[in-house]
């Protein structure tokens, strides 16, 4: 099993990154230091790690407000903290945003990954006990029909500026392994959900709109299928890969939990009605509104994660029923976090993306 002293987590103030940092510092045997590098774009929120900032001293957690595209700044971080592992979460990740403005996705996801790889390559010369772990998405594989699954050797077929930028970054990481001998691992995950998720993704969008009794926008016929993975299960998988995964290998991480969008929205309406004390379980379903579909909307994603299970002994620990209840209760208990999130950036995006559909 590999161990590290100074792990750089990029995008550590975002949804998945913040949950990973909390897990690594509080729920594993890791005794080293986390260096959180985050530009703090709209999705990066220091409040996501308020408990870590208050509870963990600087010998174990450091925040660096930096842009991963800035080579000089990344080099300073590597040298100052003697980074021996990078876990690369930082990415522009919303398909709709990539359609409206693909340039930032190319900059962050491709150029940013290249900058980190170059920084690591030059700092890790003659340092064999290092690792670059790249976090990617199942969307690079394209779209599935009614049957079948994505495997690690499924050919890439990205359909959006977002998935194309992630596919390019995946290939860069693999190239640095094959060309320069860099120790790398990669993971491709399905749709994540859980606490602290910025409300541009399906579940938090619906939760916030339900609380405000606003329309619940469902794309197209609502029958697009996604595989849902609780964020904590994602993070336990990454920890397994980083500490035990085979160098140069890719591991798929999935929830094995497929839902059509409309089935999920109906379930959210029912559970929120129960949690908010509505007498009618169907109370919020009147808010469901079908809107114009996203261009090139992939029909179905489904991950096969047998490799991760058989090689590393990982398995999902949270059922979808429990994970969803945990998530909804978290949003209901954290109204102050929601109020801070619902800033100009959030409202501007909601108006831009949904008002004309």
Characteristic terms for this protein:
357 residues; alpha/beta; Rossmann fold; 3-stranded mixed sheet; globular; 7-stranded parallel sheet; 12 strands
Poorly predicted tracts of residues: none
Instruction: Identify the overall geometry.
Output: globular
Strand proportion = 15-25%
| Tally of alpha and pi helices | 13
Q: Ends: how far apart?
A: 51 Å
Structural class: alpha/beta
Mean pLDDT: 94
CATH architecture of the domain at 6-193 and 230-256 and 300-319 and 346-355: 3-Layer(aba) Sandwich
Cα-based radius of gyration, to the nearest Å:
20 Å
Q: Provide the helix percentage.
A: 40-55%
CATH level-3 fold name of the domain at 6-193 and 230-256 and 300-319 and 346-355: Rossmann fold
Domain NAD(P)-binding: 8-326
Cofactor: NAD(+)
Pfam families: GDP_Man_Dehyd
Keywords: Lyase, NAD
Q: Can you describe what's shown?
A:
- Belongs to the NAD(P)-dependent epimerase/dehydratase family. dTDP-glucose dehydratase subfamily.
- Keywords: Lyase, NAD.
- The protein is α/β, with parallel strands linked by helices and 357 residues long.
- The chain has a domain at 6-193 and 230-256 and 300-319 and 346-355: NAD(P)-binding Rossmann-like Domain (Rossmann fold).
- It is 44% helix and 16% strand.
- It is built from 13 helices and twelve strands.
- It has helices at 15-27, 50-55, 71-81, 95-100, 102-123, 161-180, 202-212, 231-244, 261-275, 306-312, 320-333, 335-341, 344-354; strands at 6-10, 33-38, 61-65, 85-88, 131-137, 184-189, 191-193, 216-219, 225-230, 250-253, 258-260, 288-291.
- The strands form three sheets. The chain has a seven-stranded parallel sheet with strand order 3-2-1-4-5-6-10, with helices on both faces. It has a three-stranded mixed sheet with strand order 7-9-11. The chain has a two-stranded parallel sheet with strand order 8-12.
- Helix 7 (202-212) packs across helix 9 (261-275) and helix 9 crosses helix 11 (320-333).
- The longest helix is centred in the N-terminal third of the chain and has 22 residues, at 102-123.
- The radius of gyration is 20 Å and the shape is globular.
- The termini are far apart.
